[in-house]
Amino acid sequence: MKRTLLMLMGAVLFAGLAVAHGDEQHVMGTVTQVTGTTITVEVAAKPGDAQKTSVTVNVVPATKVEKMGAAATIKDLKVGDRVVIHAAKKGEKLKAHTVKIGMNMSGMKHE
Amino acid sequence: MKTWKLVALLVLALIFAGVFFCWRMIQRGFSARDTPSGLEIFMATRTRSLAVPASYRNMKNPVPNTPENIRAGMEHFADHCFLCHANDGSANTSFGKNMYPKPPDMRLPETQNKTDGELFYTIYNGIRLSGMPAFGEKDQSDADSTWQLVRFIRHLPSLTEEEKLQMEKLNPKSPMEQREEQEEEEFLKGGAPPMPMKMEHH
User: Fold this and answer.
1) Does A44 touch chain B (CB under 8 A)?
2) The CATH number of the domain covering residues in A2-104
3) Interval B52-79: pLDDT, tens
4) Does A9 contact chain B (CB < 8 Å)?
5) Do residues B165 and A71 make contact, with C-beta atoms less than 8 angstroms apart?
């Protein structure tokens, strides 16, 4: 029962920023790590909420990257950048098909 | 063997083939998730190819191959065709993947090897027993825009990432998708994350 309640709470907290769309998820947050094949995002909490979750999304050659409306590459992605990732769930993993890069929030006190 | 016996055998064979075909159809069901069999694909593509009148097959695209015409075709495609064919012509959309028969990957020779006239005829008349409707006006008053689409289909194999992004902005969106996109844009510009809400896409 306790476990179910915790899972339910987690799902509610996570719901706003990692929204499920059938087999697609939208991950919105700030980049904490980028490798050649993965992006780790600290999923932004909803306004006034201190709770944050880390999500890792896999990048594949077909992943489209966009910065300020123009085509970009994964190399343009920096730690601290805000991102919106549209990803498909493949088993336990998320596979990005679109990565939109926004403002870099490094050094900013509030997001 | 006497002629009547041959005819009777032929009729029996046809009846048997018909019964077998119906039995197979019932066994397979009518789900659009299936992929057509090799025989079905061969029969359909051959019949379709033969059904295009020579007068159309030999037509040349009267619309010049200019960036403006390709752009016009691209805008038209992004607005009318992307739902089944995807912006890049791959048919990798929820509609395209779940149709019977599946739309082809238009970047491949299967489509690119067709003549301009065959492509025009297909867009104009549609394809019976498929998800492809007849898009052309009966009086062909919109023929130029169909020919621009043909120009764009020829351009699909070399479509750039920049063009794909431009097309995404031209794709029709539901009010929910518009709101969601606006929230994402505001978030990327430093705005507050959106409030949790339940959203489901199909």
Assistant:
1) yes
2) 2.40.50.320
3) 999 999 999 999 999 999 999 999 999 9
4) no
5) yes
